[in-house]
Amino acid sequence: MKRREFIAGTTALFVSPRRSRAQATPRRAGFLGGFQNLQIGNVWRDGLRDHGWIEGKNLIIDYRYFEGHAERIPALAAELVALKPDLLIGSNPQATVALKSATATIPIVFVAVPDPVGLGLVQSLSHPGGNVTGLTDFVPGQFSSKMIDTMREMVPTASKIAILVNPGNPIHRLIVAEELPQTARKLGVALLIVEASTVDELDIAFASAAAQHADAIVPFGDPLTVNNAPRVTALAAQHRLPALYLFRLFVTKGGLISYGPDFADLFRRAGGYVDKILKGTKPSELPVEQPTKFELVKNMKTAKALGVTVPPSLVVRADEVIE
């Protein structure tokens, strides 16, 4: 055998099996969310691709969505755990809490989960402990107050503001019990709690806010409201209630104003967590990160329809103005 052929054959003997095994055994992840969102989905995949993970090639992702049916969440979490993935992703509080209840061993990365300490997901932001870490979308004690303060800046005469919550959302329960009483005292405003856990209850909640003579309404972020954004903004218009939302999506659907973290940025950054965990880093060694980008978006057409004059201070600070 010629020397060149011997070297080539020997190299193939050592390299080819390793390469073929790597190509034949992609890593696996399970993703549990409230609903499908094309824009967020694209950003999420871009974040993975930034770190060399290509869905369908070296990474297989099994998706489950509960689509507003909270009673399905535990079963969907159990389905994903049964697939024995290398890691799990929870895209909201309900999903992450369910995943943590379903497994104490499979690593879990959460995205856009408020107050993970208060929810019992991690021990602290700097030292998560356990099998869970990720990205929070706001710091407890600060953000709900900032939202309501922004609403009052938009409507200075608002002395009674309705807060739309989903009683099935654990973070909503925490905020109502612990943050809102302090916020009401701090800002000197009356906060009315209206609840909706189903689509039909959204109509009842807005009617209740109007019947109680609320000057404005702040629907807290939740899969129920996000998945029914056109209905929510239509109800706000019907009852002539200026509304401030957490997501830009609502303003593009006719909502008045939104203020919140750049969620696309959070999902892109999540790719870094996935990469580190798949390469062997334990979740307990990865501190929880907070948002670094926030968006303020306003809809001037809606403001005109409601008779709301947008203060110059908000116009200057706006990241986007929809005419």
UniProtKB/TrEMBL annotation:
Stretch forming the signal peptide: none
Superkingdom, taxonomy of origin: Bacteria
Known InterPro entries for this protein? ABC_transpt-TYRBP-like (IPR007487)
Q: What is the protein name given in its UniProt record?
A: ABC transporter substrate-binding protein
